[in-house]
Structure formats: structure tokens, C-alpha cells
Known about the structure:
The structure is a single chain. This protein is an alpha+beta fold. It has 2 domains: 1-30; 50-159, Chitinase A, domain 3 (Roll). It has helices at residues 3-27, 112-118; strands at 50-51, 57-62, 76-85, 90-93, 103-106, 126-131, 150-159. Strands 1, 2, 3, 4, 5, 6 and 7 form a 7-stranded antiparallel sheet that branches. A hairpin with a 4-residue loop joins β3 and β4 (90-93). The chain is globular, with a radius of gyration of 24 Å.
Amino acid sequence: MTSKLRYFFSLTALLLLSGYFTACSDGFTFRPPDFSLVPEPFDISNITPVTTPEGLAIYVVQEGEAFLGPVTARDRVLVRYTLRLEDGTIEDSSYRERNPDPIRFGLSDVIRGFREGMIGMVEGEKRVVIVPPSLGYANQPGHRLGSQTLRYDIELVAILD
């Protein structure tokens, strides 16, 4: 292979690689989550919570109807929720990205405080669950919410099984 041909292939490869990296860096822009549909926090100012020995506080904001009985730890549920930090910052929500639909999950898939705060709920019920770090993410080393007290506003839409 002649030196001119080797030079041509090297230059072509360099141009292709630089175009690839330029396209990758220009194509990604961080966009914060859209929480514009998240409702205001549930009002708990005149409600006395039930507090567990571990420090979980449960406020029943609205009673529901016990069509299928209360939620158990093994159930799959359909809920709307919003997770806020103590300062009111929204950290996560089922309303994320302008989605008004409830989400489904198994209670075995969530943190202990969320799961324990939902046990006993009935369809249509709304609760605020205040989760201390020990029942949240404190047991997950390095988790950015490990030292945070969490507030969940939860509406149980349906018990699935």
C-alpha cells in the first residue's frame, strides 16, 4: 500500500470518528423531568397520624371502599403517587412526563416504608406516608436519598391481585 493511500485511509477514518463524536455530544441534552401535572400535596394539617415504632407516619386523607379488602404485602396495585423530600422538592411521581394514568407494581418491589404505608389501604383511599431514612434508602449504601425523610402522597386506584 502506498503512503498516499495509507494517508487517505487514515484521514478518512479520523474524519469519520470526529463526526461520530461530534454527533453524539450534540445530540444529548439533559432535560429535567416534567412534573407539571403533579397535584398539590395532600393537606394533612388537621389529621393525627398513626405512627409505627420504627417511625413511619401514616395519615389517612380520604377513606376508600373495601371492594376487594385491604392491601396486603403480596398484592399488585394500581396507584397514583408523588414522592417529595422534606423541603417539598418533587423527587418522583406517577404523573411524571404529563402522564395522568396510574401505575402498577407489586408491593414487594418498593422500599419497606412505602410498602408498610400501603398495607391496609382500600380502593379509593388516599394517604400521606412519611418514611424515615431507616425504612427508605438508608440500607442501600451510596444511594443519594439514603439520609432523606421521604413523603409519599398515595392514591390507591385498584388492587390487582
